[in-house]
Amino acid sequence: MTLSPARGVTVEEFERFALLPENLGRKLQLINGEIVEEMPKLAHARISVRLIAWLLEYLRRSPIGEVFNELRITLEDESHNAVVPDICVVVERRGELGALGDNDPLPFMPDLLIEIQSEGQGDRHMRDLADYYLARGGQMVWLIYPDRKLVEWLTPTERRLLTLDGTIPYPCKHYSPEYAPRR
After folding, report:
1. How far is it, in rounded angstroms, from Cα 114 to Cα 41?
2. pTM
3. What does the alpha-carbon distance between residue 103 and residue 27 come to, in Å, rounded to a whole number?
4. Candidates 3.90.1570.10, 2.70.50.60, 3.30.565.10, 3.40.50.150; CATH matching 39-179
5. Residue 93, φ and ψ in degrees, nearest 5
6. Which of 2, 34, 141, 169 is 20 to 30 A from 124, alpha carbon to alpha carbon?
7. Rounded CA gap, 135 and 146, in Å?
């Protein structure tokens, strides 16, 4: 659902809009000056919860980072983008998290970003988000296509399409095959 005027919205305008009482709790993003609202459904929520549970367990055993659900990312040099990935993991810059206030957006790109395709989101939108994340410092992106039971695994130099019998490589140099998700 598009909510923005034709001229394009700045990050400052978007932040004011998102903080209005009637907009609290809505999943709003600013993508190229356009305010977009996503409406995840049951399948999306189930996948998200399962992935977060798996990542939390991995990070409990190997405390190398933090996992977040729907955390707004607003990069300092961006004037028309404030994105909210479904899930993200911060590894390399986790020491910087302590300096942020509870209501601050993340000012840098996390290491792993996960997007789960919602109804109405096209493949092009998903790939555009992945390309944006990788171009701005993300190290790995997982694009999950529930209807097709596929995961697109992307890094700055590599892209793979995984099916249900595939294994998803862990998102950082601290990878341990012992914890790799398997079907």
Report:
1. 16
2. 0.77
3. 15
4. 3.90.1570.10
5. -110, 25
6. 169
7. 25
Nearest-angstrom CA–CA distance, 80 and 4: 11
How far is the C-alpha of 70 from the C-alpha of 112, rounded, in Å? 13
Using alpha carbons, select from 176, 168, 171, 182 the residue that is nearest to residue 61: 176
Interval 44-74: pLDDT, tens = 889 999 999 999 999 999 999 999 999 999 9
> Can you say whether the dihedral through the CA atoms of 176, 178, 181, 182 is positive or negative?
positive
Amino acid at 11: V
Residue holding tokens 């998200």? 48
Q: Which residue has the tokens 């356009």?
A: 34
Distances (CA, A) of 125 to 20, 117, 118, 130, 131: 27, 9, 11, 9, 10
Q: Is 33 left (phi over 0), alpha (psi -120 to 50) or beta?
A: left
Tokens 């909210």 identify what position?
84
pLDDT, tens digit, 9 for 90 and up, residues 150-163:
999 999 999 998 88
Give dist(CA 16, CA 12) in Å, integer: 6
Residue 162, beta-bridge partner list: 151
DSSP states along 127-155:
HHHHHHHHHTT-SEEEEEEGGGTEEEEE-
Q: Are 88 and 113 in contact (CB under 8 A)?
A: yes
